[in-house]
Amino acid sequence: MSASDTPSSSIFDFLQEPLAPAAPASQPGKLVSMRAQYVVDLSFSFHQPFFDRRQQMATRMGVHVDASSHAADMHEVRLSLKLEGHVGDTQIFEAELVYGGLTWSEGSFTDDQLGIALHVDAANLLYPMARQVLLDQMNCCGCAVALPTPDFTVLYDRHLASKASSH
Predict the structure, then answer these.
(1) Can you give the pTM of this predicted structure?
(2) Among 80, 94, 84, 92, which residue's Cα sits nearest to residue 131?
């Protein structure tokens, strides 16, 4: 029997060790897992469906992340995206998407750690799917746009700074 005939061999046998070391199971506050993702709300409106498509369309995207706890270890993160398209001073379309995710945390987190895990890490997990929902909507309407990836760390730091300045 050759090595390729053994039931345990696979195309991945060349990997001698894991790519990333496993975290110790007893390490508190280090595991946040996304259990579900879903569209909460999606709206789209054309303000000017007939426009000169040869003109350059400028897009502007607003981003907001909100997180709430439903239990000690269950949290909901909602990523809100608002996309506007303009040609000159004329608004062509507006799309709003609220995309949600349920996360579970294991271990004990400080408030700062949990805030970063939900507003940064979970938002980074939700954004690619939310972006695809918006891009699919735009492509179906004939408006090819490119959406940048926000830096959720910067957005969260701004949020904390605005909370601190208001107190």
Answers:
(1) 0.76
(2) 80
